[in-house]
Amino acid sequence: MLDIFFYRIPFSNPYRTSSLDLTERTGWIFKYQREGITSLAEYAPLPGFGKPDEAGILNFRDPKRLQDFANRSTELLSYPLPDIKEALDREYDSPGLAFALSSLAVQHYVKSSQITDTELLLGSSRVDNSSKLAINDLWSIPSTFPGTEEENMWMHECLTRAVNQDLRDIKLKCDNDLDRLKRVAGFLTHWNRTTGRLNTEFCVKIKADFNRSLSWDDLKSIDEQLSQEEKQVVAYLEDPVDITNLSDLEKLRVSTSIPIGLDETLLSLIDQIPYDELCPILKESKIEVLVVKPPLFGSVFSLVNLWQTFAEDETDLVFSSLLESSVGRAITVRLAELLGSKRHSHGLWTGSLFTQDIGEDPIHRNRSAQDRQNKKESFSKKSFSKEKQHLWVDPSQVYTGHPLLNLVFQAG
After folding, report:
1. Most buried pick, 86, 122, 164, 227, via CB within 10 A?
2. Nearest 5°: CA angle at 238, between 235 and 242?
3. Rounded to an integer, what is the distance from CA 330 to the centroid of its chain?
4. Residue 315 — very low, low, confident or very high, per pLDDT cuts 50/70/90?
């Protein structure tokens, strides 16, 4: 049976996207119970991302619609796993719902069988646990003191905090400000050099997000504006220019020596071009990084297909949160451990943007709350131990009685 909760989580500060400012995050938690097994997943459309009508698919003010959805989803989740894959592709035009329901299906299957998630999804009993899952910090530098000593002090304080929290890289919102990239690259180059991190695996780098704001001439000028050392502290340029046609992908890759990452650009291409046609074009373009927000890509099985497409290439999948609650982030963290890049950090530190949450932050899941309080040490990001691999979302770490959660449909 399927219970449905609705949540509202306030942001600590208004969160600005390219289209609006958000003061709270809303979404749905699905609690699926069968054969004594409980699985949890999340459906949380974000305005401006995904299909325009995503947010209207469920309505907590329409009990009949919720009941019909819960009844059909419960029936679908009782199918054998291959039939669930087919039904999701056939019946759900919503990538977010397909992702949530497939997450429930995978969790239930591995909990009720003797197979691990790596065996189920990747056909292997092993996953590379040789390195920790690296997480990036989020920087949005105040515009009130560009190029001043106050800015340097702000960056130093933020970097010290990030390193103490074991965050590896910096996701920098650049807008169309090349000077900001130059200043931060210079600051990080000096800091990495003085701490002995430059040219090592511990070098703290910038993931420079331009949100498609640069001109082609601006993009080409970056190589001239940054020194060779400064280029080494830029992990990649994310969505630097607006891609208007497929030939721009090749042009994009040869316009700079710095690696390129696609986020919103990738989503807009997927909306325009059938996936089977787009993947060969992306492979040929040799774009280094594809940023993956799982609920926007459809079912878990679709993400595995994406990983298989690029597994033998130099293209890395970098996983990013869609500003979900701890439930959605826990699933994304596990997928990043299974399918994500080992060279680049992942955008999973978004729980820090909320005033509170409905469960424990999945980044902290391998450490006790008492250890974090007493030792104040950097958190562990080690992959799940084998016996925990089926826990994608640990029900014991989600508080369904939390005041932020409103039970809007209860089965039975």
Report:
1. 122
2. 150
3. 10
4. very high
